[in-house]
Amino acid sequence: MTTRVNSESLINSLRDLYGETVTCADIRGYCASNGVSYPTVTKYLDDYKTSRGKWNLSLQEKLEQTYQAPPGLPAAEQNLIPVKDDTFVSFGNFADIKKIIKSNLFYPTFITGLSGNGKTFSVEQACAQSRRELIRVNITIETDEDDLIGGFRLVDGATVWHNGPVIEALERGAILLLDEVDLASNKILCLQSILEGKGVFLKKTGKYITPAEGFNVFATANTKGKGSEDGRFIGTNVLNEAFLERFPVTFEQEYPTPAVEQKILASICGEVEFCKRLVDWADIIRKTFYDGGVEEVISTRRLVHIVKAFGIFGDKAKAIQVCLNRFDDETKQAFMDLYDKVDSDVDFVEEA
Ligand SMILES: Nc1ncnc2c1ncn2[C@@H]1O[C@H](COP(=O)(O)OP(=O)(O)OP(=O)(O)O)[C@@H](O)[C@H]1O
Ligand SMILES: [Mg+2]
Q1: What CA–CA distances, in Å, run from 339 to 268, 301, 346?
Q2: Contacts 24+ apart (CB under 8 A), 332-340
Q3: At residue 239, does pLDDT exceed 60?
Q4: Counting ligands in written order, which one lies closest to the CA of residue 122?
Q5: Is there an atom of ligand 1 within 6 Å of 300 CB?
Q6: Which of 87, 128, 251, 278 is 20–30 Å from 94 (CA)?
Q7: Bigger pLDDT: 43 vs 336
């Protein structure tokens, strides 16, 4: 009968049978009685080999080898300052976000608001303008300690510690952006001490990481971490109260005013009149949305999609139509009817 082996059980069995020092004769004996092949066993023991035909199974030695092992990928000496985007227009909370970043203080900041109104973009551009490094982590329900803090990775047969993005940001004194944090599960609570500005103890390596100067955390979310009552934001979770309490300030990000939004679109599209009509249209839809008249809303992102589609197709009606196809038929029709009211020059093609 053949036995399936795994590294931990194998080492424990060998240690029980032969003690810390194991020879090739011991391994042959083990293979014969367990129906495993000699190369399989010795492959698992690679890290413990001390000389030809000899292995030392003491745990400490294994750990020392692990910690001294070179990082799996060279710690990239890359510049993490985001690139300035000429199309960015400052509005709303941007000045405050920038002030917080420029202060170099540790001041966790939560930004909440509907989708596509510039939450992520504003943190990115505030870092770009302040020449500060940014590490953005997109949070999902699957995000865990290993993704955030780091863990051991297998590199060329050796286990090697890899810093996660949070440790990287702590050590670099970078801005850490926990993007869409309300999608997180309770596994995000591994960040509690970090959100107190205290750094973190890496249980797996026995090392304490203190935050370098300038380290700060921003979190963005479509909700305030209390779930999404109307079901608009599927997948959002109720975040732990103590987690939310660690953010001293919360900014409520609104859609830009029509004047600002027009500027945003004009930096992408030369047709000023078209941009103006689109912005007026989005403004009416948003007001109707807030009054409960429609269930969907046109975001700044979607307006940008439309002017970009116009740049590609050179056809206004088509640009609007293809960008509205993501909505259900009823909403799409309602949005097109509203557009007709602000711009009678555009004729939508009737769909078969
Ligand atoms: N201030 C701005 N200046 C120029 N463009 C902007 C601005 N704000 C938003 N936009 C446009 O809207 C798009 C969406 O912005 P962003 O990704 O920051 O939204 P968000 O609020 O993070 O959305 P989500 O909640 O869906 O993550 C940007 O890619 C950009 O095209
Ligand atoms: Mg975002």
Answers
A1: 20, 17, 8
A2: 334/294, 335/285, 335/294, 335/296, 335/298, 338/281, 338/284, 338/285, 338/288, 339/277, 339/281
A3: yes
A4: 1
A5: yes
A6: 278
A7: 336
**Residue 120 pLDDT greater than 90, yes or no:** yes
CB 233 within 8 A of CB 183: no
Beta carbon of 112 within 6 Å of any ligand 1 atom: no
Tokens of 39: 């190369």
Residue 352: predicted pLDDT:
55
Question: Does the C-beta of 118 come closer than 6 Å to ligand 1?
Answer: yes
d(CA 337, CA 288): 13
Q: Are 178 and 217 in contact (CB under 8 A)?
A: yes
Any idea which ligand is nearest the CA of 114?
1
- Segment 157-179 shows an average pLDDT of 95
CA 7 to chain centre: 33
Query: Phi and psi (nearest 5°) for 332?
Result: -60, -45
Question: Which residue among 85, 117, 137, 220 is best mutated to probe the pocket of ligand 1, counting the most ligand atoms within 8 A of its Cβ?
Answer: 117
Q: Please state whether beta strands 134-138 and 175-179 pair in parallel, antiparallel, or not at all (unpaired).
A: parallel
